[in-house]
Design brief:
It is a single chain. The strands form 2 sheets. Strands 8-7-6-9-11-10 form a 6-stranded mixed β-sheet, sandwiched between helices. Helix 8 crosses helix 10 and helix 8 crosses helix 12. With about 300 residues, it is an alpha/beta fold. It is built from 13 helices and 11 strands. The chain folds into 2 domains: about 100 residues, Nucleotidyltransferase, domain 5, CATH 3.30.420; about 190 residues, Exopolyphosphatase. Domain 2 (Nucleotidyltransferase, domain 5).
């Protein structure tokens, strides 16, 4: 029996998955997330802040204890957008080595996209449909097209943290700020779609990561964050548009009144929803299927 530990460190969160072999496939032993906002200010300064490094160190200490308890056969840690962009990523790497005893792999946007696709489609029906998988992160969004394996992938620097810090600086954002964010997002989405799916082959849109799953939970009207109900739930463009408009009208405090809202996501969820809505508009997708399985599961599969 093989047990593996996968860690995904993005711009907003750091997540841990420990899984082992089961009769029907991998079984989760631990699945945990901490909001660390590693990418706070990177779009402006180009550096990971001391406060972000401290938050990361605290999370890594917790994860190190969990990993030591479960003694996995292999550990792989992947770092994505924030670490790719940071001038002082060596300080981050030193923290990881000190806490976990492994070096973080700072992967390219294309590799991030492929790992996300692998994690997302593993438990989807093998029905021959061409899927467009979008992973909306804190600093970047990955676009991948394929059936069971990725055929084309592209990463663009639009994410919920980056767009919030760049454009949506008021609470709530002004109409002018929202328009500026939409224009920025639109350019990147059109670029990605022209590269990944220029002939419009994809017939199914699958959305990953916290922005998508939170919007889905809001659209479903859940009274708590319930991964089992969110996973593979399908919501319409109209539902996404309505949730997006509501989020962009609300203050951070108003968003926090929702029972599905993670406190570390409340200030950036409006931007994440805006990215999702724009993708659906430009890809002419009438629905999106949310997946709780993503790059984290792809990382685990890569070392199993």
């Amino acid at each position: 029996m093989t047990t593996v530990a996968a860690i995904d460190c993005g711009t907003n969160s750091i997540r841990l998955l420990i899984s082992t072999d089961g009769p029907q496939g991998p079984v989760d032993v631990v699945r945990k997330m901490e909001i660390i906002r590693l990418g706070e200010g990177i779009d402006t300064t180009g550096r990971i802040s001391a406060a972000a490094l401290q938050r990361t160190d605290t999370a890594l200490e917790i994860y190190g204890r969990i990993i030591a308890k479960h003694q996995p056969d292999t550990v792989r840690m992947v770092a994505t957008s924030a670490t790719r962009d940071a001038e002082n990523s060596d300080a981050f790497a030193d923290l990881v080595m000190a806490r976990l005893g492994v070096s973080p792999e700072v992967i390219s946007g294309d590799e991030e996209a492929r790992l996300s696709f692998a994690g997302a489609v593993a438990d989807l029906p093998d029905d021959g449909r061409t899927r467009l998988v979008v992973d909306i992160g804190g600093g970047s969004t990955e676009f991948v097209r394929g059936v069971r394996h990725s055929d084309a992938a592209h990463s663009v620097n639009i994410g919920c943290v980056r767009m919030t810090e760049r454009h949506l600086t008021s609470d709530p954002p002004t109409a002018e700020q929202i328009a500026a964010a939409e224009s920025d997002i639109l350019v990147h989405v059109d670029t990605a779609l022209a590269i990944v799916d220029p002939r419009g082959l994809a017939t199914s849109l699958v959305g990953l990561a916290g922005s998508v799953t939170t919007v889905t939970a809001l659209a479903l009207g859940l009274d708590s964050y319930q991964p089992e109900r969110i996973h593979h739930a399908e919501v319409t463009y109209d539902q996404v548009a309505e949730v997006t408009d509501t989020l962009l009208r609300q203050t951070r405090q108003e968003r926090l009144t929702s029972p599905v809202m993670h406190p570390g996501r409340a200030d950036v969820i409006g931007a994440g929803a805006l990215v999702l809505r724009t993708i659906m508009e430009r890809a002419k997708a009438t629905t999106v299927t949310a997946s709780e399985h993503d790059i984290l599961d792809g990382i685990a599969a890569s070392i199993r």
